[in-house]
Amino acid sequence: MNNEKIISILNKKLNLEKIYATGDNNHIKIIAVGDIFKGISQVKRQQIIYAPLISMITEKKIHALSITTYTTEEWKKKQKNLS
Question: Origin, by domain of life (predicted)?
Answer without folding.
Answer: Bacteria
